[in-house]
Specification:
mainly alpha, 11 helices, 77% helix, globular
Length: 254
């Protein structure tokens, strides 16, 4: 059982994670290591973190509903793929032993940090390219395969999922960054919700911590939205990348 002061730590870590997600992404690189540092087993910490961050994904998706005009076909094709991938990733996680998952943690965190780092040039490339909505979806239906693979990763760990999905969409669909980002929000929500629902039926969720983190993440997200104009997202993202790399090194040493 966590002590009272540890719940305070978890709350502020989730506030930071929610704010970082709202501003730059990569909040999991803050909240997940804090949970494990407080003694929560890695698998349970990952599962608890996934459930706790659901409100943030939902808020992000709802905020961009207006940018989904004429995206019905691509969503019909990719939402089921995202749900299936999220469930498969969740199944894989629950069937990974604590020791095996603990050994994977530094690699997963380092991988997520690299993904976050490439988000900056990726976004710039998409912005410079511009473009219009890509028709001929039948010719691009193979996008389902990489989306499923990304969703499996998202259900298994999740940090950096949005970057992977945005990269895949950007490679296949000729559209604006705003509209691609809106699709990404819906697909990320689908992955996270499907994995979270599956996790709810396991005995691995630290529910008290999940509730505290959900409240903190919502508060942090709202705070991040208020100060968005005062902090450069690229600068914050770079800080999170550095934190992620340092954390991964610490895990490697352990």
């Amino acid at each position: 059982m966590l002590a009272e002061y540890e719940f305070v730590i978890i709350f502020f870590a989730s506030v930071a994670a929610g704010g970082v997600n709202a501003l730059a992404g990569g909040g999991t690189l803050i909240s997940f290591p804090v949970l494990t540092a407080l003694g929560i087993p890695p698998v349970a910490a990952n599962i608890t973190n996934t459930i706790a961050l659901c409100p943030g994904y939902f808020g992000g998706a709802m905020a961009q509903l207006g940018d989904l005009k004429n995206q019905k076909l691509i969503l019909i094709a990719l939402i089921p793929a995202s749900i299936i991938g999220g469930l498969v990733g969740g199944l894989l996680l629950l069937n990974t032993g604590e020791k095996a998952f603990a050994q994977l943690i530094p690699y997963l965190i380092l991988f997520a940090s690299i993904l976050l780092a490439i988000q900056i040039p990726l976004r710039k490339r998409l912005v410079n390219r511009g473009g219009g909505y890509s028709k001929g979806l039948a010719n691009k239906i193979w996008i389902i395969i990489p989306i499923i693979m990304a969703a499996i990763y998202g259900g298994y760990f999740g940090a950096g999922l949005s970057v992977i999905i945005l990269a895949v969409l950007g490679l296949v669909l000729d559209d604006s960054l705003t509209r691609l980002n809106a699709v990404k929000q819906i697909l990320s929500l689908s992955v996270n919700i499907s994995a979270a629902i599956y996790f709810m039926f396991s005995d691995q969720v630290v529910w008290v911590a999940a509730v505290v983190m959900s409240i903190g993440a919502l508060f942090g997200g709202a705070l991040g939205g208020r100060i968005a104009g005062k902090i450069k997202p690229d600068t914050l993202r770079l800080v999170v990348v550095v934190i992620g790399v340092v954390v991964s090194i610490i895990y490697f040493i352990k």
